[in-house]
Amino acid sequence: MTAPRPLRRLSPLAVGVTLVLLLGALLVGLLVGAVGLSPGAVLSEVADRLPFVSVDSGLSEQEAAIVWDLRLPRVVLAALVGATLAAAGAAYQGVFRNPLADPYLLGVAAGAGLGATIGIVTLGSASAVVPAAAFGGALVAVALTYALGGAAGGRSGTTLVLAGVAVAAFFTAAQTFVQQRHADTVREVYSWILGRLSTVGWSEVALLAPYAGVSLLVLLLHRRLLDVMAVGEEEAETLGVSVSRVRLVVVAAATLGTAAAVAVSGLVGFVGIVVPHAVRLMVGSSYRVILPLSVLGGAAFLVLADLGARTLAAPSEVPLGVITAFVGAPFFAVVLRSARRGWGP
Amino acid sequence: MSGIVARGVGVRYDGRVALEGVDLDVPAGEWAALVGPNGAGKSSLLRALAGTVPVTGTVAVGGRSRHEMSRRRWARLVAAVAQHPVLPAGLTAAEYVLLGRTPHLGYLAAESRRDVAAALAALERLDAGELAARPLGSLSGGERQRVVLARALAQDPEVLLLDEPTASLDIGHQQQVLDLVEGLRRERGIAVVAALHDLTLAAQYAGRLVLLDRGRVAAEGPAAAVLTPEGLARFSGARVALLRGPDGELVVAPRRHT
Q1: What's the whole-model pTM score?
Q2: ipTM summary value
Q3: Contact assessment for residue A331 and residue A276, using Cβ atoms and an 8 Å cutoff
Q4: Would you list the DSSP string of A251-286?
Q5: Which residues of chain A does B132 touch, with a Cβ-Cβ cutoff of 8 Å?
Q6: How many other C-beta atoms lie within 10 A of the C-beta of residue B250?
Q7: Which residues of B touch A228 (CB under 8 A)?
């Protein structure tokens, strides 16, 4: 450990280490797959696509398609989903000053679950409408939570969280009801709920990228204000911060990103809560540091988790949500044990 | 520097009147202590002055009313120290004090070197410079209060509101904190409004006492005029003797029932 510094800023070392971790994860994700392609060939295939570089990878057209249309979009999608969920989780923890907050706090998961279930039972799991239905359901659920929290006269974050509990319970009940009425699709619905990234081509990446981009940008811009929110609502107001406005903007951005991520990946749990806490335990509790490192760390974590999901029980896939919890929980236990830091929100 | 003025200020919580028709004038460089029994409205008046509760009537600093101003502009004029400030355990003292610069920053702006310098200077001014790199969770009660005051000072305010700043401090640290506030009042002409439980400290530090009772001002003036055994028996149900210290300073001594 270095000597304590009065103001901890994002250190180039921490960014560098996390970035290397992410690049390593992306590389491994690209090199490993069901079809055995030699790493050298995959790397030269990638290099060949760079401007001003021309290398013959020796891959057939079909094999090249595996690299470009299966593996690469999948690792990129995993990175985007992981980054978005981790940033949203960190933002929720900050804005609600609640270490247990995760991106699904205000009903995103239940809303997306209902939307996706309705989509699957009416149009089938292959339909391109399913992500849109999940996305829409998630946004509707959070909007309802906000309306309910406001109607309850609550200006406080606690009222909003309680409203989220009610909305989530209602949407989950509706989802279970719809699912039970269409028992033939239970398997598809179940697979969606456990989270999975099975892509063909770049369409999911294209779907998620704009929302993830906006969400990450807005959240990163609010990292200083999240530190101000840490002193509580009333004190933040005496510091001139409009707490309800900041909360609305942060929740809207986090929800947009989370809804889009859920739409393409299903419900991947644990990333939004474990990654920000692991970062917090390692580098302190300022959101200026937590948010950027959570983005990189979340991306790396989910790329590796997805690698596990598609290789551990190949040729069949393990649900991604199972891997994130299975790997995340022990990893988190180690971080928790080795950290001597306080557990401040 | 300008003082703070309240006219006909009222505060209600869910229809229950916590404060009604309160007038208050605290010019620049003056120290007013709010005294009175629990529930008399001291914290409500401080909230009204800080602008964190909806109020009837007007509150103004230097002729500029709270209503005409954004929350951020008001926070550049008025700093508040809460009775139980939230100190996020993982932040260092310097990071915490830097939060005091918030009202001087644009919505999404980052602090400049000048803001950092102002925060560190505020820590130094409150004899807490050596605490800069310490996590808040590791500070003692007296250290915590100095760091919280430093955050308020970093706001560069014209008015400083303190809600029971000496609660849960031992007597030496109570005096240390009040001496520091007194220093700021003298050297910068900051107007100080402090709710104080300890009537002896209130009498010795504040130039003027404002006795609140059931949401109204019951008495106002120099300590000797406001603190009378009859008044304290009536408003606080307290049995006290008013004594004079070696230098003629007022001492409020509790007396056991005989």
Answers
A1: 0.88
A2: 0.91
A3: no
A4: HHHHHHHHHHHHHHH----SHHHHHHHHHHHHH-S-
A5: 6
A6: 17
A7: 99, 102
